[in-house]
Specification:
8% strand; two-stranded antiparallel ribbon; 153 residues; two-stranded parallel sheet; 38% helix; globular; single chain; mainly alpha
């Protein structure tokens, strides 16, 4: 079920693990932020992932692997800036170094999914975060969804 269609009384959707970071910005609490030259990440909106999963299920192939993602990178600072803009708030950022073993850039190679499934993620970070914030501020969001669940394991 897509977040735009979800009424959490009827499904078991789990929010993104990024929900705690978003909550820190919303409450103006200090949020750990990457140092300048921040790493790049491939943020993917859930609707695009669901589209890929549905296409893979419809294919009916056994043991076929598909890498689903957005296939474009955004800096973590840009991620925070979009949230700030959407909320009309400035985050209280604490600059930190990258964790040992972390990589500068990650992104999904979706070429196999594109060729076999016709997978084409279309949700930009701006639109995806806008939809996320709308859901987060809606009556459908419950704090326990961010605090409990298998996604935290």
């Amino acid at each position: 079920m897509r977040p735009s269609e979800c009424s959490h009384s009827k499904c078991t959707c789990a929010p993104s693990p990024l929900t705690p970071t978003f909550t820190l910005i919303l409450t103006s609490t200090s949020s750990p932020s990457p140092s300048p030259g921040a790493p790049l990440r491939d943020f993917t909106y859930i609707d695009d992932i669901v589209d890929g999963i549905v296409a893979a299920l419809a294919l009916g192939a056994e043991e076929e692997l598909f890498n689903l993602g957005n296939h474009r990178t955004e800096s973590l600072m840009r991620f925070i800036e979009v949230i700030e803009r959407e909320l009309g708030l400035k985050a209280n950022k604490t600059m930190t170094e990258m964790s040992p073993g972390d990589v500068l850039a990650t992104y999904a190679d979706v070429s196999h999914a594109r060729e076999v499934l016709g997978y084409a993620p279309k949700t930009s970070i701006d639109v995806g975060l806008r939809k996320f914030i709308r859901w987060y501020r809606s009556d459908e969001f419950r704090q326990e969804f961010a605090e409990e669940g298998d996604w935290k394991r």
